[in-house]
Amino acid sequence: MTDGPSPTRGTGPTVWCVMACHDRRDLTLRCLETVRGQLAVDGLGLRVLVVDDGSSDGTAAAIAERFPEVDVVRGDGTWFWGGSMRRGIDVAIARGADALWLVNDDVEFRPEALARLVDALGAAAAGGQRPGVPWPSVWVVGATADPVTGTTTYSGWRRTGRWRPRVRMLAPGDRPVRCDFASFNSVLVPTTDYRRLGGIDRRFPHGYGDHDLSRRATRAGIPLLLVPGFVGRCAPNPAPAWTDPTLPVRVRLRDLHSRRNRPPGQAWRFVVRHYGVFAPILFLRPYVSILTGSLRSGIRGRRAAGR
């Protein structure tokens, strides 16, 4: 762990920006540059912590050279996103974080991103006043836009059916809107809430952790608000291989069960926890998709061969 000079601004509450990274040095450095460029928020301190989970591309050294004020925690390559974020958040809390700005390292933030999150929190909790200590029990989500198309890539989500397990990602509007859960590309979380809920579930070492924690928050009665406008740019992740019907079934299944996608045990735990009686349907849906896609591809191939 390296400790550089603190970038804390202000003498009031302190927000710790926490992100995880692995082998994408240029994206991480670009994100840190935009975090460093955040407009100061009166009475609010900002510190930054990066968890580098065993990068082999010199990310940690590059951070130390270009951002000596950033704290760096080094993992061994087995923590993945969930474990890395848990570790980083634990360190931030131990060092006195009043709130956590949880971000992804592939986001390029607008200079007013943090100020916008804080303003939305103040408007929701105290009639526009800056939050003090303890922070009000409200979580604030910032949406990101595709740098090419301008469409929403990561945001808050809302359930669209009372009885059916359907959800939709929300596009930011001109006023804050309630969410049911969120992707943690940019979310502001009071430390007291994070600790009360037990944090990111260690049984979700890579995927599911952000959706699971934010769902548990709303279930506990904590409001989750999507702020107006975009807080930054972030390209969408490429579609996983298991969704490609042209690939062999065994290849698609192997990708589906990989740690980055839907390991069966984790997938089952998540759907049971959050969807109840619909859990078997949602658990089996990707397998049905793979099977039907393979059948359609085979039928098309035989028709083409018979021409």
General description of the model:
The protein folds into two domains: 14-233, Spore Coat Polysaccharide Biosynthesis Protein SpsA, Chain A (Alpha-Beta Complex); 241-305, no CATH class. It is an alpha/beta fold. Helix content is 37%, strand content 21%. The protein is globular. The termini are far apart. The protein has helices at residues 25-36, 59-66, 80-94, 113-126, 191-197, 209-219, 249-256, 264-275, 279-305, and strands at residues 14-21, 45-53, 71-75, 99-103, 108-109, 139-145, 152-154, 156-159, 167-169, 177-178, 181-182, 186-190, 224-233.
List keywords for this structure.
9 helices; alpha/beta; disordered N terminus; 307 residues; 10-stranded mixed β-sheet; 3-stranded antiparallel β-sheet
Number of strands: 13
The gross shape turns out to be globular
Q: What is the domain total for the residues?
A: 2
Our count of helices gives 9
Into which percent range does the helicity of residues fall? 25-40%
Write the layout of secondary structure elements.
Layout: E1 14-21, H1 25-36, E2 45-53, H2 59-66, E3 71-75, H3 80-94, E4 99-103, E5 108-109, H4 113-126, E6 139-145, E7 152-154, E8 156-159, E9 167-169, E10 177-178, E11 181-182, E12 186-190, H5 191-197, H6 209-219, E13 224-233, H7 249-256, H8 264-275, H9 279-305
Parallel strand pairs: 1-2, 1-4, 2-3, 6-13
Antiparallel strand pairs: 4-12, 5-13, 6-7, 6-12, 8-9, 8-11, 10-13
Helix pairs in contact: 1-2, 7-9, 8-9
